[in-house]
Amino acid sequence: METVLQVLQLILSIGVIGGVLAHSGKDGGLSGAFGVGGGQGSLGGGSMLERNVTRWTIGLSILWAVNTIALIKLAS
């Protein structure tokens, strides 16, 4: 069980890193290189893709934190 959680932790870590890198920052970020995330919507939000990247990053981060707690509980 611990091995499965460790592999899941690795996959989640890579996903969170990818999600953070895909966000557009001050200079457009990695998503700016592909021509997305440049415009602001009428409600002040970014493009649909940028909002979905944000949602996925938050979801993966929560799963990463829960998995970390499970690994700590399993090890003790």
Descriptive account of the structure:
With 76 residues, this protein is mainly α. The chain has one domain (2-23, 43-75). Helices cover 70% and strands 0% of the residues. It has three helices and no strands. The protein has helices at 2-22, 29-32, 48-75. Helix 1 (2-22) runs antiparallel to helix 3. The protein is elongated and about 45 Å long. The mean pLDDT is 82.
Briefly characterize the structure:
This protein is mainly α and 76 residues long. The chain is built from 3 helices and no strands. α1 packs antiparallel against α3 (48-75).
Q: In whole angstroms, how far apart are the ends? A: 14 Å
Total beta strands: 0
Mean pLDDT reading: 82
Shape: elongated
Structural class: mainly alpha
Number of domains: 1
> How many helices?
3
Task: Give the helix proportion (percent range).
Answer: 55-70%
CA gyration radius, whole angstroms: 16 Å
- Sheet of most strands: none
- Which stretches of 5+ consecutive residues score pLDDT under 50? none
- The proportion of residues in beta strands is under 5%
Order of helices and strands: HHH
